[in-house]
Amino acid sequence: MTQQHFRDECDINKIVERAIRTGDTTVFTSAQRAEFYDASAITDYVDAMALIDDVHDDFKSLPSTIRSMFGNNVKQYVEWMSNPANWNKARELGLLSGGEESATERASVRESSPAPASPRERSGADVNKASNAGSEPAKPADGS
Question: Where is the segment annotated Disordered (predicted)?
């Protein structure tokens, strides 16, 4: 059943007439104005969806105590993390590591740092280190 006492508020003819008469056009604009940003790094739909999936996966991997700080809402998490004023707190929570460094600095650190040990190397397992490493897969320690 419809509520007839709202009919004048919903009648487009009356809405337009009121806007012309009073100059009030707020009914035609969203309460939350649209925000625009440069999305040129996202080149296609697949990239956009991959980014969204990554953000959701990152959020889901957080401890529940941290997720609850954002009302279990990934949008609130993204908005909070996007504000540079929150970055020190994010570091304290373990959400960010280190300082703000340029992409060039990050790349140079990656190139000069040795590759991390594999899980097998970290476990102390005997890894076959043949002189022609890379040409054949490593053989198991038992020689089979």
Answer: 96-144
